[in-house]
Amino acid sequence: MTVLTIILCIFLLLLFVPKRGYPWAIAVTFATYAWICWIISRPLPISDDWGDFDRFIISVALCVGVVPALFRLLLGLRKVESSPAEIDWTPTKASSLFILIWGFAWLLTPEFPALVGAALCVAVALLLSAVIFAIVRLMPRHQVLLVTSGTALITGVIAIVIWPFAVVAAAEKKADGRPYCIVVADGSDYRTANNLLDLTPLIMRGRESGKSAANFHGQLLTLGDVNRNWSYEHRDFSDKSSDHKPPHCTASTGFARNLAWF
Question: In this predicted structure, what is the pLDDT of residue 140?
């Protein structure tokens, strides 16, 4: 399994990396572990679900993977010359802060954007990043952490606003000139997409509950075709949707490409 191979590489990295490179190794470990924890905790399609036992094995492997770090930490505490004060832990701090900002943003969506509006969330993120970069010179001691915060916000915005282009292209290709419309997740139900920002992870994300989801991220309803659900992994409306209560919306030619951004 690919995930177990990645954990093994992390194990070897933490075991053999020189002391001076340890902050970078831990920074990579934090980012990788955050990604793996997200993967094993999010809802997966039945065809891709690893099952409880597979998730348990990965969880155990994650714990074993950090053993070299704990071992070297304990060993370092016994040696005065290996004091952590000699090491620049800035990469570790920056990585941790970046992950915390992205993780916090992930937890707030899609409920918070649905409440205040996706456009306001994007605008606030851009404004905060601009303010942070503007005060970097005023606080040189915290330059790295400020730059990390600003970069996390601006890259988050970029990661969000690129999705409408993929969704529109996929919808137009699947519709092939036929009238269609797109519905997006709205709590445990659906609603018609009103603008392009609705076609982003800020809004178009199924309601998650443990290893299951109450609905799909979004669906393409094409005249003369089955409903198809949106997959961020495949970047396409690929699979047939199945709902106890199928959603409805008013189809039109070029529905997605005619949407405004706001």
Answer: 82
Question: Around Cβ 250, how many Cβ atoms within 10 Å?
Answer: 9
Question: What residue ranges of the chain have pLDDT lower than 50?
Answer: 80-82
User: What's this model's pTM, rounded to 2 decimal places?
Assistant: 0.81
Task: Work out the burial of residue 199: count CB atoms within 10 Å of its CB; fewer than 13 is exposed, 13-18 middle, 19 or more buried.
Answer: buried
Residues 254 and 4: their CA atoms lie apart, in Å, by: 44
Beta bridge partners of 231: 236
């399994």: which residue's tokens?
1
Q: Which of 229, 203, 200, 216 is nearest to 43 (CA)?
A: 216
Type of residue found at 236: D
What SS3 class is residue 188?
Answer: coil
Token pair of 20 as six digits: 């001076």
Kindly state the tokens that stand for 60.
């155990």
The pLDDT of residue 46:
52
Backbone conformation region of residue 101, classed left if phi is above 0, alpha if psi is from -120 to 50, else beta: alpha
What is the greatest pairwise CA distance in the chain? 74
pLDDT digits (tens, 9 = 90+) for 1-14: 688 898 889 888 88
Gyration radius from the chain CA atoms? 22
| Rounded CA separation 207/19 (Å) | 44
